[in-house]
Amino acid sequence: MVPNFAEFRLIFSRLGLDIVSFTPVGYTKSEKYNAKHAYEKQWTTKHKTLDYCFDRIKKGIATGYGLVTGNGLLAIDFDGENSFKIATAAANWLIDIETLSWSSGKSHRQQKLFKIPDHRLKDFENFKNKKIYSYGEIEQIKGEQLELRYNGSQSVLPPSKHPETDCYQ
To answer: What is the pLDDT of residues 47-82, one digit of tens each?
Structure first.
């Protein structure tokens, strides 16, 4: 199945996300191929457009694209069943709030995107990311975490290729 990137461009445009920064991921010409990693040098500072990323995908150079977080956009990655328990205990509203979200298709995996209000941006200017493995009485489970991504991070978006489930949804 060939992903319809034009459909995603329209979705991003309607959400006002067509002006944010992206990076191609999954460089196909490398022996160290990883569908989730940004491959261009300085991707955290030299951002690309959706068109640039989609062109790389069409040409078979990349297998997907990621949203570069920061500049007011915070992604929260729920990675495993335990991450939902942590979120419920720490900030229950994270579970039920409706916002742009996507998944690899694996059980108990989801990312949610949030816009930081302008008056709170200063609070995040030095924040990069934070992985939370346990909280209170909730003990760590190997391979599961709740991750907050901001400056210097990216999140792979649909319909990019996923190494285990074909593509993000």
So the answer is: 888 888 888 888 888 888 888 899 889 999 999 999
Q: Are 17 and 63 part of one and the same domain?
A: yes
Domain range enclosing 20: 5-69+154-167
Does 130 lie in the same domain as 80? yes
- My answer on whether 57 and 86 are in the same domain is no
User: Prior bond to 3 cis, omega within 30?
Assistant: no
Q: What does 3-27 look like in DSSP terms, one character per residue?
A: --HHHHHHHHHHTT-TTS-EEEE--
SS3 track for 88-118 = HHHHCHHHHCCCCEECCCCCCEEEEEEECCH
Residues 137 and 163 in one domain: no
Contact criterion met (CB below 8 Å) for 153 and 70? yes
Distance between alpha carbon 25 and the CA centroid of its chain, in Å? 11
Among all chains, which residue has been given the structure tokens 């300085």?
42
Please state the pTM of the whole predicted model: 0.85
Q: Are residues 48 and 81 in the same domain?
A: no
**Looking at the DSSP assignment, which residues form a beta bridge with residue 102?**
111
